[in-house]
Structure formats: structure tokens, C-alpha cells
């Protein structure tokens, strides 16, 4: 029996401004039709996977649940109260599943695999090794002397794989060329296959502190809607460590199985350009784009027309609130921009203009001194929390659909072109009773318009502080 373990943490700052702290790359459709998380789950269709567990943080839980629900693959979601790297994250699932002792297929939610047939073959080739008690890691057959990945040196052959001789950190260009020429090295993919019991045995042997902290955190769990919460205080005491350092570099049972499946971790805009479909001039274009005399560029726009003339080797990314222009050779420095934005407490490092919520989304259309204008979309059957505000009043105008509105002690229906006014301090709620999206314009006015000026009294999504 295989249980997939999909790690969906991380911020993806090098793909800013599309990927942001509150909406990172694993929840975006960057390559292919679905989001990266959805594509990771769908990639399992050729394997005998009995169930899946997704591990994510508290802030992204509704992204995970909604995106899995869209593809009818919602099984279990473990919420990490704080990120502690991959060794503890995998331990949580192993502890949860150890009674049945399945094979754990550990995958990251933000990788691209272009050849799913070869992916399935590599995993299938590794099954007997994992069943025998080996800890399998998948080594990507290198296509070039890439300095952005760690490497795995293979040793003696063993069945369909090789004994791991050495894990190597990201090399210099010259060293990477030597690795490529030798044919003995693979890119370290961060994908694994092993029995739950074997992983826990090795973790307990080499990092008993991590094992014990995770075991203690799993003793007290709390099921909440689709989520499993672990003990926050005990997990916070767990050391942060990767599975490579904690287990794979120390165990005598590490095996590397080669995988040649068009793998990429999309760690930058240039790596996304590498795997994107291009025109005759080497340009990868997404959205409403017009190019003239341009070559080898990546140009993407979410809303407005973008036109470029006479440029080469550029990355141009336009969102509703940000425009990024960078040379492909400098895209690794995008992270420095997000760090500066965070230091200056600007919202663009964390939030898009369009913000997703469990009930739908809102788009901040306009703002100024003492006012904000939002376009709000409420999904069919969804309801915002019963709430009030200390500092702002709100005016709702229905654009399309039907709204059930609670305004003080009154509850009533609003249809298209109808509106209501909610004074400061009045308890209110909004629900979509229809079968299509509810669209409305919200005009806020007041002395303070921050999202933290919300006092929730009831919430079906568990967002009331306890």
C-alpha cells in the first residue's frame, strides 16, 4: 500500500510577484492547466496510491482543501503550527500511518514533472527496494551542469538502483561540469519512498530529539473540518532539520533510483522559461502580450495588455498591482526585492490585490484616505463570518447573483442593483444562497480600514480565536 505525502509549505519568493507569502507558487497554475498542487496529486494516477496526506501551514489550509476538492482528491490535511523543515513534517505522517505501515511516497507540491510515464516507472522500479526496508531517494538524470541543485553520487548497483555514496551541496560551475561528465551524479530531487516504520526507526536512531518531539505533538491532535491539528507547544520545541541531514546522509540503507522524467523545481523565472513552450524567437508568452523584435524572453500578464519592443533575455511579469522587469541572468535577486518590501512593511511581499478567502475572494479596486473599494465574490452556498467593525462602515451593492444579508437585527434578500448600508459597530453577515457566484461592490469608509478590524461572532471556517 502506498500513501502519498505531499509537502505544501514554502513561500516561493523567487517567483514574486506571482508567488507571494499569502499565496505561494504551489497554489498557482504556473505550468499546465491545474495548480502545482493539483498536478502533483494527479501525477499519482498511474500508481496504486491508497490515500494522500498534504502537509501545509495554517495560513494556506483553505487553499489546499479547496484545490483538492476541485479535483475530488481530498483525503487528509495535516497543519503544521510552525515550519520545521522536511524531517519533522514527514515524521508526522509516518506516526499517523504507522499502524498500517504503508510505503510513504514523499513529494513536494511545487515540482514539475513533464513525463508522467517515466515518473510512474521510476516509482514502480523503487517499490521492491522500499518494501525490503531500503530508504529510496530519486535522483534526477542531469541534463546540464546545473549549480542550483544539490547532487547525489551513486555507489554500487543494487537491484534497480544504486547505493548512495554521497550527498553533495550545490556545486560551482566547474565542479558541476565534472559531475555531469562522470555520469555518476544525479540531481537531488527531494522525492523519497520508504516504509513508515523504517523512516521512524532511522529517525529515532539518528535524531531521537526530532522523533520524540513529533511523537509528543501527535499524542494530542484535534480534527477541525478537513484538517488535523497537532499540539502546537510540543511541535514548536522540535528542532528544524531536513530529511537529508537528519536521516538520508546517516543511514546505511539509502538507495538512489534514477528518474529521467522532465523534472524541474521551478526555483526561478528563468527555470520556468526553460520548460515553457516558446515561439520561433524563443519567447514564452502568457496572457495578453504583443512583442516586436524580441527574443528569448518570458512575458506574462494577468490582466492588462503588455507590449515589448526590441528586448532580449528579459523576464516581464505583470500582475494587477506589480510590474517586474528583470534580466534572466539576475532573477535570483528577486528574493532581495521581497526582503526589502517586507522590511519596509509594504503589503506587496505578502498579498496580491486579489485575495482569496474560504468563502471566495475580494479584489481591492481602489483605496485612499478613509476609504476602500472592493469587488467581492462569494461562492454558492458560502457565508462570510458574522462580524462587526469598530472603525469602519460598509456599503454593499449587488452586481450579480443573490445575497442573504444580516444587518443588525434584520435579515433580508438583496438582488442585482440593490444595496444596503452597515454603520460602524453593527453586527452583520453575508451569504450566497444561490447556485452561481454572488458579485458585489463593497465601499468601506472610516478612520481605520485594516483587515484586523474584524470581530467575529460566528464562523463556519473556524477562524474565531479561542
What oligomeric state do these chains adopt?
A: single chain
Spatial order of the strands forming the largest sheet: 20-21-22-29-24-27
Q: Tally the structural domains.
A: 3
Largest sheet: 6 strands, antiparallel
What proportion of the residues is helical, as a percent range? 10-25%
> For the CA atoms, what is the radius of gyration?
24 Å
In the CATH hierarchy, what is the class of the largest domain? Alpha Beta
For this structure, the CATH topology of the largest domain is Spore Coat Polysaccharide Biosynthesis Protein SpsA, Chain A
CATH superfamily of the largest domain: Spore Coat Polysaccharide Biosynthesis Protein SpsA, Chain A
> What integer is the average pLDDT?
94
Number of strands: 30
Weakly predicted, low-confidence segments: none
Terminal-residue CA separation? 38 Å
Number of helices: 11
CATH architecture label of the largest domain: Alpha-Beta Complex
Helix/strand/pairing category = alpha/beta
Key terms:
466 residues, 3 domains, 6-stranded antiparallel β-sheet, 30 strands, 23% helix
Q: What does this molecule look like?
A:
With 466 residues, the chain is α/β, with parallel strands linked by helices. The protein folds into three domains: 2-264, Spore Coat Polysaccharide Biosynthesis Protein SpsA, Chain A, CATH 3.90.550.10; 269-333, no CATH class; 354-458, Jelly Rolls. Helices cover 23% and strands 35% of the residues. The chain has eleven helices and 30 strands. The strands form seven sheets. It has a six-stranded antiparallel sheet, with no helix packed on it. The chain has a five-stranded mixed barrel with strand order 6-9-7-8-12. α6 crosses α7 (208-219). The longest helix is centred in the N-terminal third of the chain and has 16 residues, at 116-131. The protein is globular, with a radius of gyration of 24 Å. The two termini are 38 Å apart. The relative contact order is 0.11. The model has no long low-confidence stretch (mean pLDDT 94).
Amino acid at each position: 500500500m502506498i500513501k502519498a505525502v505531499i509537502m505544501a509549505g514554502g513561500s516561493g519568493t523567487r517567483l514574486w510577484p506571482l508567488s507571494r507569502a499569502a499565496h505561494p507558487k504551489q497554489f498557482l497554475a504556473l505550468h499546465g492547466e491545474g495548480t502545482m498542487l493539483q498536478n502533483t496529486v494527479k501525477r499519482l494516477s498511474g500508481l496504486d496510491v491508497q490515500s494522500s496526506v498534504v502537509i501545509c501551514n495554517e495560513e494556506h489550509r483553505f487553499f489546499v482543501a479547496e484545490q483538492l476538492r476541485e479535483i475530488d482528491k481530498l483525503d487528509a490535511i495535516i497543519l503544521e503550527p510552525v515550519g520545521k523543515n522536511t524531517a519533522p513534517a514527514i515524521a508526522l505522517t509516518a506516526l499517523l500511518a504507522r499502524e498500517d505501515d504503508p510505503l510513504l511516497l514523499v513529494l513536494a507540491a511545487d515540482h514539475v514533472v513533464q513525463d508522467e510515464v517515466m515518473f510512474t516507472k521510476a516509482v514502480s522500479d523503487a517499490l521492491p527496494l522500499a518494501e525490503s526496508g531500503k530508504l529510496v531517494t530519486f535522483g534526477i538524470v542531469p541534463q546540464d551542469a546545473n549549480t542550483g541543485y544539490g547532487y547525489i553520487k551513486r555507489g554500487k548497483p543494487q537491484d534497480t538502483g544504486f547505493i548512495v555514496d554521497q550527498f553533495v551541496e550545490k556545486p560551482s560551475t566547474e565542479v558541476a561540469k565534472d559531475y555531469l561528465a562522470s555520469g555518476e551524479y544525479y540531481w537531488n530531487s527531494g522525492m523519497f519512498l520508504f516504509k513508515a516504520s523504517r523512516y521512524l526507526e532511522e529517525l529515532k536512531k539518528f535524531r531521537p530529539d526530532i522523533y520524540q518531539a513529533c511523537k509528543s505533538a501527535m499524542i494530542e491532535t484535534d480534527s477541525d473540518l478537513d484538517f488535523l491539528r497537532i499540539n502546537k507547544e510540543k511541535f514548536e520545541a522540535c528542532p528544524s532539520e531536513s530529511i537529508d541531514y537528519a536521516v538520508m546522509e546517516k543511514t546505511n540503507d539509502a538507495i538512489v533510483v534514477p528518474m529521467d522524467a522532465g523534472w524541474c523545481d521551478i526555483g526561478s523565472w528563468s527555470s520556468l522559461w526553460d520548460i515553457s513552450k516558446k515561439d520561433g524567437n524563443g519567447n514564452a508568452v502568457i496572457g495578453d502580450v504583443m512583442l516586436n523584435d524580441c527574443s528569448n524572453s518570458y512575458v506574462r500578464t494577468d490582466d492588462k495588455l503588455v507590449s515589448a519592443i526590441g528586448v532580449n533575455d528579459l523576464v516581464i511579469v505583470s500582475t494587477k498591482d506589480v510590474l517586474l522587469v528583470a534580466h534572466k541572468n539576475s532573477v535570483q535577486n528577486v528574493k532581495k526585492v521581497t526582503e526589502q518590501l517586507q522590511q519596509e512593511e509594504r503589503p506587496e511581499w505578502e498579498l496580491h490585490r486579489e485575495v482569496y478567502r474560504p468563502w471566495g475572494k475580494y479584489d481591492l479596486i481602489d483605496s485612499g484616505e478613509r476609504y476602500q473599494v472592493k469587488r467581492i465574490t462569494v461562492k454558492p452556498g458560502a457565508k462570510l463570518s458574522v462580524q462587526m467593525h469598530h472603525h469602519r462602515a460598509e456599503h454593499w451593492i449587488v452586481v450579480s447573483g443573490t445575497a442573504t444579508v444580516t444587518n443588525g437585527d434584520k435579515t433580508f434578500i438583496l438582488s442585482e442593483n440593490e444595496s444596503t448600508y452597515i454603520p460602524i459597530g453593527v453586527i452583520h453577515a453575508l451569504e450566497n444562497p444561490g447556485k452561481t457566484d454572488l458579485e458585489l461592490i463593497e465601499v468601506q469608509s472610516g478612520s481605520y480600514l485594516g483587515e484586523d478590524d474584524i470581530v467575529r461572532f460566528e464562523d463556519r471556517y473556524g477562524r474565531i480565536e479561542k
